[in-house]
Amino acid sequence: MTREVEQKMVEYTFHCAEIRGKAESKAIPEARLQAFVALVGRIRAEILPHSVIQNNAYTKWFMTGAPDRREVEHFLRQFSVFSNLFLEAQLKKVINAPTLEAMRASKEILLNELGVVFRNRQSQSQSPVKPESPVKAESQSSDVDDALVEQEGSVEGGTFRFAAAHFEWLLRMTGHLGLGFGDVGKRRHGTPSTLYFCDELARLYGSEDPHTALGASFAVENWAAAGFWKELIAGLRIFKARECPDLPLSFFLWHDRVEDQHAAHTWAELEEEFFAMDLDQEKFIAGGRAMLDGVAAFWHGLDQDRHQASR
Asked: Distances from the Cα of 309 to the Cαs of 65, 125, 305, in angstroms?
């Protein structure tokens, strides 16, 4: 291994134990390590600095608690469209998975979204008494009990419950603002910017091209782990205390906890995929950047909506 590659690898810690062991034992050819080093450099320069990861103007505003009831309703309606149409993108990701392992990983997400509760064998075997879930503790009126809020594990052997479907969590929330099943979640409820985001998810995240899909997936995970859930929760808590004390926040609290756990997993998954395939870096980077542009369009649209409504 050349000194240059060795130095750059010191600056990067492998998150996947198997790949880390192979790198340390020099079981991975130097050319492959060089290619991975180059990819990490490009990710840090071309994907992670994206404005939607670094500085989301809408969520920065939202976290201050400034949104009034009408603005919160509009936000939740648009978010419900994204949440529901995400199922289409995730199903495409299952169908277009390049390997059986990738297909199963995508099914875990899809089936959990639809209501199959994660079964965490480790937590069940270690202690008969589970600590109170932050989701449950947030609001007794959320009607989402501890059995529905496991944040990790597998859907293998899990139980399907209608009430555990993520869209139903969100629906219980919107109901407190007078938005029923017919008012949320459908394409007809989406603004052009929301629908553009959803369509880009289906096109890129669910792409048949594995290089593009991997780039889009990596970008989405880094956006999701960058803290926007916490910013939304902060604003919703202020709104809840001010105007809607029974508002359940389970949907947002659960996703925030999951993303905290997934931050390191994102890099581990990239390592596994990179060394298992001959990755086209150009397609990967292009897919990631285009996906983040789609994400940004969603938030920019919401930001424009609030400014136009205030005129």
From this structure: 17, 53, 6
